[in-house]
Structures are given as structure tokens and as C-alpha cells.
């Protein structure tokens, strides 16, 4: 399983010299299975460049998993070039939401007067499948879901192949229980033993007093989860739109210091555009 990141920023894309190391595109992660199946998690602005690569390489069969319907996780969808190519076969999968069907929500990203091309006018074959949190398979990968501790619901994913696993829990608040979320111990069990965990780490302890309940985690809580779950690698994800490269570097240093004091073998890093991991 190959994991490649095209965007790890939260809330809104950013640009500038202070964001070059970790990038400014919003949530989009590519997973290539051992059999060559393409699975994309989230349709943030990073999806645009990934779509261009798909077209250049002639990739036509695409599986897109959506965690939830907030704008920063969908705004790249209308700019995904395979949508406009006949022969593209795209499956869009995601949570059952209280705001309407997955197709209806995605359609809103391509509706007048906000976008000139509507979903009904695309050339690709596209299917929408509401998976909820039930387990399903894509090729040789088994995918499990868990409700996110986030506003307006959502689903986190665990992808398992050949005894190895990648867990993706962005927009997951560990310090506050949302109505449709789960408790801390549930997320520990969900991530247990994973080779790689990408977890929301948007806030600092200083931020949290004013943003508790917004649906995002303090990075120290994400680190605690990784340690308690016994994962091998923790990727801090969903960087705050104002968090500079220098500040993110400081967060990573602090986390690594805690890991060293615990004498743990956990590897911790901040996920950047271009981060690539083979498991």
C-alpha cells in the first residue's frame, strides 16, 4: 500500500513563503493498493493536481472516499479533470448525512451561480454510494469506518491490506464528545496497531479554550491517542490555516521530545503535500 499526500491543510487553502514546507492545499490523500487500485480520500484542493496526473497517466478507474461534507474537503471536486473525460469510471463513497444524499451534497459544488458546469453535464461515469460506517472492500483492501467526533457528522477510515493498516482520522476532536461521535477509547481501538495514523492536529493547547467544540484536536491529544493505540507512525494532519512551517516544526519537536521521554518507538511527523509512505 502506497500513501501519497496531495493536501494536508485545514479550513481553507493558503499560500506564501511561510507555508512552503508543508504546503497549502486542503485535505486529499492518495492510496495505491498492491494490486494497483486507486483510492482517494477527500476532495480538497489537492485533488486538482492529482486529477491532472490521473489524466496524464491514463488512469480511468477511481475510488473517492469522502470523510464529510465541509467545504475544505470538497472544494477540489469541480476541478478534478477525470470528471470531464469520457471513459472515466468514478465511484464516490462516503457517510450518510443529515443534510441530504451524498450525490446532492456533491452536486452543490457544481451548481449555478457558483460554478459554470453542473454535475449532470460531466462526461465521466460516476456512481454515488453511501457506505456509512459499514465495512467494504476495494480490490484487496478492506475498509472500515467509524463516526468522527465532528460537527455535522463524518466518517474516519481504516484501510487494511496484507496485515498492514492505514488509519485516517481528520476532523476528529478528542477533547469533546459530539452527539454523533464516539468516545476516546473507541478511537484507540479503531487505530490499534496501525502502521500509519494520520490524525487531526489543528490546535495548540493555547488555542483550545476558545475553540472547544469546533470539531478539531489539540496535537497533544493526537499524540496521546497514537501512543495508547500503539501505532508505528503518527502523521499530524489538518494544519491550521495560519500555522506556519516554523510553528509546525516546533510542534513536531515537542511531540518527539515527549515520545523520547516515554521511550516509545513511535515515529511522529507533520504531514506535508508530497509526503509519501510505503507500508
Number of strands: 14
Shape: globular
Low-pLDDT runs: none
| Proportion of residues in extended strands | 25-35%
Strand order of the largest sheet: 6-5-4-3-2-1-14
The name of the CATH topology is Metallo-beta-lactamase, Chain A
- Cα-to-Cα separation, first versus last residue: 5 Å
Please identify the oligomeric state.
single chain
| CATH fourth-tier homologous superfamily | Ribonuclease Z/Hydroxyacylglutathione hydrolase-like
Structure overview:
It is globular and about 55 Å long. The chain is an alpha/beta fold. The protein has one domain (2-278): Ribonuclease Z/Hydroxyacylglutathione hydrolase-like (Metallo-beta-lactamase, Chain A, 4-Layer Sandwich), CATH 3.60.15. The chain has a seven-stranded mixed sheet. The protein has helices at residues 46-57, 102-107, 184-191, 205-211, 219-229, 245-262, and strands spanning 2-7, 28-32, 38-41, 61-65, 89-94, 125-130, 136-138, 141-147, 155-161, 164-169, 196-200, 233-237, 267-270, 276-278.
Kindly summarize this structure in a few lines.
With 279 residues, the chain is α/β, with parallel strands linked by helices. The chain is built from six helices and 14 strands.
